[in-house]
Each structure stands twice: as structure tokens, then as C-alpha cells.
Amino acid sequence: MSITNSATNLGTTLGDFLTGARYDLSGLTSAINEYLDGVRREYGPNGFAERAEAAGYGDIVARWKADDKTGPMTEDMVRTLIVPNDLEWFAGQTGLSDRAVVMILAKQLPIVVYKRAHAVVPH
After folding, report:
1. Residues 6 or more apart in contact with residue 28 via CB below 8 angstroms
2. Is the CB of residue 28 less than 8 Å from the CB of residue 90?
3. Which of 39, 74, 79, 100 is the most exposed place for a label (fewest CB within 10 A)?
4. CA–CA gap between residue 104 and residue 7 (Å, rounded)
């Protein structure tokens, strides 16, 4: 890693800390719903679940839909299920660093998937 990258990462990490980015879930939660709506429009009602299945995470996503206590994703799962361009989109929508986006997605995506599966008005 270059000095420039190290300085940028330190600045981003410091910015996330100072702004409480790791704990600000509202903007990212809205972005998750917008993202999943887009996946649904582009790939069909089961587009995200099919992507997860293809990546070997189909059973995990099925558990998210059934149980809100399944726990967070790993960073590897986030980076497998959500392509880098989409992670950049999340960062742009929220003003969060890549690292903060991945950390919050790991915790919030399973919860959002559960809530969407049990919504009275389907998403």
C-alpha cells in the first residue's frame, strides 16, 4: 500500500469515526432497500436470492428471510454478493467509506431481507 493510499485510508477511517458512520444506519438502510428494489426490477422478484444461490449462499439468504436472528454476514459474503461498483454506489449514496459500507451492510442486509420478506406491503 502506498503512502497516499495509507493517508487516504486513515483520513476515511478517522472521518467515519468522527461522524459516527459505523452507527448511522438510516441512510444505508434506505440505500439497501433502493438497491434491492433495483435488483428486483432488473433480475426479477428472486434476483438477489438467485445471485446468492449462484455464489453458494442460497441457504443463508433463505435463513435471513425466515429468521431475524441469523446474525451478520462476513466481509467476504458482502464483497461476493455485492459487486464493487454497487459498493461504490452505496458509499456515494451515504458518504461512508468502503469499509464502513461493508461493515454496516454485513449487519443490516440480513435484517432488511427479513423485514422485506415479512412486509405487509411487498417490496
Report:
1. 90, 93, 94, 96, 101, 104, 105, 108
2. yes
3. 74
4. 23
* 30 contacts: CB under 8 Å, gap ≥ 6: none
What is the reported pLDDT for 38?
Answer: 92
Phi, psi of 67 (to 5 degrees): -140, 125
Q: Are 78 and 91 in contact (CB under 8 A)?
A: no
Q: What does the alpha-carbon distance between residue 41 and residue 45 come to, in Å, rounded to a whole number?
A: 7
At 46, list the grid cell: 428472486
Cell numbers 412486509 label which residue? Answer: 119
Per-residue pLDDT, 3: 52
C-beta separation of 96 from 17 below 8 A = no
